[in-house]
Amino acid sequence: MLAEGSGNRPLSEVLDGLCGLLERYGSVFEEVTASYRLTAADSGTSRAFALKGGQYLPLGDNEPVDVTITGKEQHLLAIFNKQLNPAGALLTGKIKVKGSLAALNTLASYL
Length: 111
Description:
Oligomer: single chain
Number of strands: 5
């Protein structure tokens, strides 16, 4: 799914798919222990999860995370579709990252 992009799916489906991949392929992420939240500021679509030694754990809306990524739904989808470079989106203010850049880079290196 990540290699093919999100197609015309809404962000909620893309994030569900991402979480499903993380859950199914946890052994690939066994060196990752951090928590993440992705949120579309305009639509309110949000998913929070943790990886603890690669094990996927869903998190609630109010649970603290190591990294929060926020942006408009169209910009987040453009990143998943490889139409928008994540670093460029960050530099131009299309997405915002709060928290540990090291934790973000760790997960990004796998994706």
